[in-house]
């Protein structure tokens, strides 16, 4: 992944986690929604993280799926129905118990990799919880007490260029103005899934392909959408200012954290979920003192079937032309 990030700087991510201890009603205000999210994320652990890397022309370098150690017997907080749902989706909790990645080890290694690549574009789909679990992994602390502080941390960890594909879909009538889930949106756009649904690797790959198709079909100007998350009125950042602030802070934290990173020459142990074994994969397997899992699904070719190329430099132009429109729509939804 480290090598691929030099030329494939679009990072699509998805996560799987143990459900919701507090479920937020659809029309809840932002303060209540954040309080529920903080309670859920602070008390539970991420189960699976999917990362897909691509370039600005839609060429995919690969998809990585990280499966974390999770012991149902010892975990105090989780939603039993969500665990059963994830089992049905193909996640093997016995393998997670035996060979799951230690979260602290992963956090140190991942932070080290990110410190070497500060000009990335991050893609999510309805990604508030995905970002929250990533922030928790990065900071190793509970989430901050306010939404404003949380969005500032996101800008620090990820930089200015964060895009939520579900939020982007809100501005297009034929995409049902963002009311659809990832699977249904992909079908409308004619994008086929690789792998199983509700697997973080497959979902991150589908997010990357949906984003690429939307760019080619609608000629999206990315600067309009940078920093907005679906269902959140607070913009994460003004692109230009946050980019500078994020890079500076990341440089400082990288120096501190680099001292704690253990150098390893061995490759990570790899584990393939049962429902993924029929797909083309490259697995690097070697015993390691730290239990870890990594699925690397190789893929090649352009996601943009009509070959239209869109420059990613738009991402770093400042601009908040749709901020007032966004806040107005959120307010109208809350009143409804």
TrEMBL record:
GO terms for cellular component: CCR4-NOT complex; cytoplasm; nucleus. Gene3D superfamilies: Ribonuclease H-like superfamily/Ribonuclease H. InterPro entries: CNOT7/CNOT8/Pop2, RNase_CAF1, RNaseH-like_sf, RNaseH_sf. PANTHER family: CCR4-NOT TRANSCRIPTION COMPLEX SUBUNIT. It is found in: Cytoplasm; Nucleus. Residues 323-336 have a biased composition (Basic and acidic residues). This is poly(A)-specific ribonuclease. Keywords: Cytoplasm, Exonuclease, Hydrolase, Metal-binding, Nuclease, Nucleus, RNA-binding, Transcription, Transcription regulation. It comes from Hevea brasiliensis. Belongs to the CAF1 family. It holds the Pfam family CAF1. It catalyses: Exonucleolytic cleavage of poly(A) to 5'-AMP. GO terms for molecular function: metal ion binding; poly(A)-specific ribonuclease activity; RNA binding.
């Amino acid at each position: 992944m480290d090598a691929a990030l030099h030329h494939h700087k679009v990072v699509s991510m998805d996560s799987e986690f143990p459900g919701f201890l507090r479920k937020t009603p659809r029309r809840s205000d932002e303060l209540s929604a954040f309080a529920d999210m903080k309670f859920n994320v602070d008390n539970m652990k991420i189960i699976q993280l999917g990362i897909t890397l691509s370039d600005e022309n839609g060429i995919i370098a690969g998809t990585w799926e990280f499966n974390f150690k999770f012991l149902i017997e010892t975990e105090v907080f989780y939603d039993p129905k969500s665990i059963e749902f994830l089992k049905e989706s193909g996640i093997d909790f016995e393998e997670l118990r035996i060979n799951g990645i230690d979260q602290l080890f992963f956090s140190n290694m991942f932070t080290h990799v990110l410190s070497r690549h500060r000009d990335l574009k991050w893609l999510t789909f309805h990604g508030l919880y995905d970002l929250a679990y990533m922030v928790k992994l990065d900071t190793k602390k509970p989430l901050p007490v306010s939404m404003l502080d949380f969005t500032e941390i996101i800008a620090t960890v990820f930089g200015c260029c964060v895009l939520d594909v579900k939020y982007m879909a809100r501005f297009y009538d034929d995409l049902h103005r963002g009311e659809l889930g990832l699977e249904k949106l992909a079908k409308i756009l004619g994008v086929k899934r690789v792998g199983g649904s509700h697997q973080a690797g497959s979902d991150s790959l589908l997010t990357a392909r949906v984003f690429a198709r939307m760019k080619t079909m609608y000629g999206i100007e990315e600067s309009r959408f940078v920093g907005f998350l679906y269902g959140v009125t607070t913009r994460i950042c003004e692109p230009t200012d946050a980019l500078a602030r994020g890079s500076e802070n990341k440089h400082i934290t990288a120096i501190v954290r680099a001292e704690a990173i253990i150098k390893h020459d061995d490759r990570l142990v790899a584990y393939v979920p049962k429902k993924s074994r029929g797909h083309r994969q490259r697995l690097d397997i070697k015993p390691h003192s730290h239990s870890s899992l990594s699925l690397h699904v190789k893929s090649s070719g352009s996601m943009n079937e009509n070959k239209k190329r869109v420059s990613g430099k738009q991402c770093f132009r400042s601009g908040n032309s749709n901020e007032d429109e966004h806040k107005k729509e959120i307010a109208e939804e809350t009143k409804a």
